[in-house]
Amino acid sequence: QKEVEQNSGPLSVPEGAIASLNCTYSDRGSQSFFWYRQYSGKSPELIMSIYSNGDKEDGRFTAQLNKASQYVSLLIRDSQPSDSATYLCAVKGAAGNKLTFGGGTRVLVKP
Amino acid sequence: GAGVSQTPSNKVTEKGKYVELRCDPISGHTALYWYRQSLGQGPEFLIYFQGTGAADDSGLPNDRFFAVRPEGSVSTLKIQRTERGDSAVYLCASRGGGSGELFFGEGSRLTVL
Fold first, then answer.
1. What pLDDT was estimated at residue B48?
2. Is B86 helix (H, G, I), strand (E, B) or coil?
3. Is A50:A67 a contact under the CB 8 Å cutoff?
4. Tell me: the pLDDT tens digits for A40-52?
5. B23-77 confidence digits (pLDDT tens)
6. Staple A36 to which of A44, A83, B8, B73, CB 3.0 to 4.6 Å?
7. Is the Cβ of A6 closer than 8 Å to some Cβ of chain B?
């Protein structure tokens, strides 16, 4: 079992719709969770961090965390063509500061 | 510059050669990470430094890979006897203080022929 798992996609959504991305992790003691966006040929950039159960909203993005289910998700509302990218889930484990990434979900927003 | 700087941006080498990749982190950032990313995959953790010491090197795939950060700033990733399977983009990231955010450089693309 991979430490951090994501559906590779592509997830195709029409412009203006909601894109829903999921991530599961294996280390039950993990405390910190991040979503990074990576455009093709570019390096990852942080878009959201979440540390406690529940929802966290930032603009059009909402991160959701359920530690009991070891599940974290990202919602992108009012999707725009500029949101087309790969979204990487990253988890900091219970011990140390190692940050483990999932394989990423490719999102395509169609005008 | 204000960001993480990686050199070279592209490196083409022959199988069996030795390669060094350099990372200059954001000034003042004490934590520095190396990742390797193959096409269509997420970044794969290699090693991270807290100051001058390697706090976790569990991701280094074998003893051909080695990294140093002698003065707690610039880091060099060294790959001996390169193999075609080492071809990837090598990403460096730094982190400051208690923030969990990693700031990535643009990567060094290594191609082993």
1. 94
2. helix
3. no
4. 999 999 999 999 9
5. 999 998 999 999 999 999 999 999 999 999 999 999 999 999 999 999 999 999 9
6. A44
7. yes
Q: Is B102 in contact with A99 (Cβ distance < 8 A)?
A: yes
Among A4, A50, A99, A105, the strongest candidate for a mutation testing the B interface, having the largest count of B CBs within 10 A, is: A99
Dihedral sign of CA atoms B12, B106, A23, B60 in order = positive
Which burial class, exposed, middle or buried, applies to A28 when counting CB atoms under 10 A from its CB (0-12, 13-18, 19+)? exposed
Three-state DSSP state, A73 = strand
Single-letter amino acid code for the residue at B90: Y
Query: Is residue B98 scored above 80 in pLDDT?
Result: no
Of A7, A90, A32, A62, nearest to B35 by C-alpha is: A90
Determine the residue of chain A that is closest to B100 in CA distance. A32
